TrEMBL record:
Residues 1-22 form the signal peptide. Keywords: Disulfide bond, Glycoprotein, Immunoglobulin domain, Membrane, Repeat, Signal, Transmembrane, Transmembrane helix. It comes from Cyprinus carpio carpio. It is found in: Membrane. This is Melanoma cell adhesion molecule b. Residues 37-140, 145-250, 256-338, 345-423, 430-523 form the Ig-like domain. It is a single-pass type I membrane protein. Pfam families: C2-set_2, Ig_2, Ig_3, V-set. One of its GO terms (cellular component) is plasma membrane.
Length: 618
């Protein structure tokens, strides 16, 4: 304001120096800008030859009524603010006077400026001679609007509509003077044309502020769905113009379908029976059209754009067609795709079950029908025998009997495989294998586990008997556990040796009966010797027997030679010196040996050699 006053004073001086003084000269600005509810200062600069007698401020309302209304009066002695005016309590005037320069000023100050204050203000100065001069200033009010708001249409806009369609609206509130709205698409302002139109609605609120609505109409194209639209608002402030923008929005553009594409999931691998397959139909239009599906010409029900095939079979193979129908344009498009559901049938093994005589030959074949190349292999006990669909078994024996497994796989589709088992039995008299071992659980009870495995067909029946070695009386048989095997029957018992026992395992079928016996001692070393004997092969038992026989023969020959020398008197020892080399008796803790051969086993207790035998002279 100070600069403004200085400018007015300079203007007054120029008038004074450049021309003959007027009686009273008043200088004022053409207009003064102020924000709503702010404080306005309107200066009045005057020059006169005589002292000022009176200063009066008037207002002049806009419009046809050109009459003045006095709002302020000052006569050098007192100040009067007109009663009943809207300025009571809101205005004041500051005065200054320079007698030596014959200049002065009167500044009208208005507090809490209202929109109704926007009018013309007149300053009239009187001298003592009742001469007067006056100046005029227009007060301009400004109010910055609220932030603008943009909103797009909630429904889509079709490209097929001939006339421009409303795509968005922009609103700005509480501006003064009226704000201006400009629409933008991307970085470029939109100009009115045949394809672009805007419509504005300006509303004056009861408080005098403006609300501006602007609607944007365009003839949309398909590319407009990626465009960003927004509006720019320019509004006036004291001394200038400011600008603000709304957020950027997309609009929903509808356009017809011109192409349909079918896709299958899974798409990266072969389809097999049991899979779940999704066939999706996608059109390039928006919104999506109505889709219909057919399979080999037969109409299918579907969920909108996707056809779900659960647990597919080979009957689901064939041609699938998706057809679209656009309700707006009435156009139709289609696409098709071929699907192959691969399969592997159940295995057929011939013959399915076979009973052979010992020495027979057998050929097993394994086949499975498939839509893809297959690979076949035969297994027994999880070990692969051959890799082909034919298995040759020659010169059948008990080792031939068992469960054989055929496995058919599809190398190009590993999840596709089939298994089939076939039982091969060999007829004949039971083949019996007996194993004996210390019970690892009942070590304190000195128990012995006996296992009897009988091979043969028909499946043998196993019978256990126990008897006391001294009395020959039968002993109750413990609980028997039995289970079938691929080649026969497996039977198990656990015996606690409280006395010397004879255990017999008997296996029988229609071709004969086989028995195996075991003798068990009730000594501290039963378990150890039994375990050792059990782990010895049949050939080892024969070697032990041969060694024992040789030892017996050597001892017998040595005894005979000693006896012969004694009879001839060759030995210089008296009766008292005679000693029996076999005097010591074998204790009951002597070693128990279990003897195994290919067909039977026998336990023998060595009680001593020539024990307690007297010489002929005694």
């Amino acid at each position: 304001m100070t600069l403004r006053y200085i400018a007015l004073l300079i203007a007054g001086l120029s008038v004074f120096t450049c021309k003959t003084w007027a009686v009273v000269d008043v200088s004022m600005e053409d207009w003064v800008d102020v924000s709503l509810k702010g404080q306005a200062e309107i200066p009045c600069i005057y020059t006169l030859k005589e002292p000022a007698k009176m200063i009066v401020w008037f207002t002049k309302l806009p419009g046809r009524d050109q009459s003045r209304r006095r709002i302020y009066y000052y006569d050098g002695q007192k100040t009067v603010i007109e009663e009943g005016s809207e300025y009571v309590g809101r205005i004041k005037v500051t005065h200054s006077h320079e007698p030596q320069n014959a200049r002065g000023s009167a500044i009208l100050i208005i507090d809490n400026v209202q929109l109704s204050d926007q009018r013309e203000y007149i300053c009239t100065v009187y001298n003592v001679s009742t001469d007067s001069g006056e100046g005029r200033t227009r007060l301009q009010i400004f109010n910055s609007p609220s932030l603008p708001v943009i909103e797009g249409m909630h429904t889509g806009i079709s490209v097929t509509v001939e006339e421009p369609s409303k795509v968005a609206q922009c609103k700005v509130d509480d501006g003064y003077p009226r704000p201006n709205i400009t629409w933008y698409k991307g970085r470029f302002p939109l100009q009115q044309s045949e394809e672009v139109k805007t419509m504005e609605l300006v509303t004056t609120k009861p408080n005098g502020l403006f609300t501006v609505h602007s609607d944007l109409y365009i003839k949309v194209e398909k590319t407009d769905e990626d465009a960003l639209f927004y509006c720019e608002v320019k509004y006036f402030v004291p001394g200038g113009v400011r600008m603000t923008e709304t957020k950027k929005i997309n609009i929903t553009v509808h356009y017809p379908t011109t192409e349909v594409t079918l896709s299958v999931n899974p798409h990266d691998r072969l389809i097999k029976e049991g899979d779940t397959v999704k066939i999706r139909c996608v059109g390039n239009g928006k919104p999506p059209p109505i889709f219909s599906f057919t399979h080999n010409g037969d109409e299918l029900s579907s969920d909108e754009e996707m056809l779900l095939l659960d647990n597919v079979s080979r009957s689901n193979s064939g041609t699938y067609v998706c057809q679209s129908f656009d309700l707006d344009t009435g156009t139709s498009f289609e696409d098709s795709i071929n699907i192959t559901v691969h399969y592997l049938d159940h295995i057929v093994v011939t013959p399915e079950e076979t009973v052979l005589d010992q020495g027979d030959d057998l050929t097993l074949t394994c086949n499975a029908l498939s839509s893809l190349p297959t690979q076949t292999a035969w297994y027994k006990h999880d070990m692969q025998l051959v890799e082909r669909h034919v298995l040759e078994l020659n010169n059948a024996s008990y080792d031939t009997a068992g469960m054989y497994m055929c496995k058919v796989t599809v190398p190009s589709l590993p999840d596709l495989q089939e298994l089939k088992s076939v039982q091969v039995s060999v007829r004949g008299k039971p083949k019996l294998t007996v194993e004996m071992a210390a019970d690892p659980v009942n070590k304190a009870d000195r128990s012995v586990n006996l296992t009897c495995h009988a091979e043969g067909y028909p499946s043998p029946t196993i019978t256990w008997t126990l008897s006391d070695q001294w009395t020959g009386q039968p002993v109750p048989v413990p609980e028997v556990e039995s289970q079938k095997t691929d080649t026969g029957v497996l039977s198990m018992i656990s015996v606690r040796a409280t006395s010397k026992l004879t255990v017999n395992c008997s296996a029988a079928n229609e071709f004969g009966t086989v028995n195996v016996s075991h003798k068990i001692e009730a000594s501290a070393r039963v378990k150890t010797t039994t375990t050792q004997a059990t782990s010895t092969k049949g050939g080892g038992s024969g070697v032990i027997i041969a060694v024992m026989i040789i030892c017996l023969l050597l001892i017998a020959i040595l005894g005979s030679m000693l006896y012969f020398l004694y009879k001839k008197g060759k030995l210089p020892c008296g009766r008292s010196g005679k000693q029996d080399f076999t005097k010591e008796k074998a204790s009951k803790d002597d070693i128990v040996m279990e003897m195994k051969s290919g067909k039977s086993e026998e336990a023998v207790l060595l009680q001593g050699i020539n024990g307690d035998r007297k010489s002929p002279t005694e």
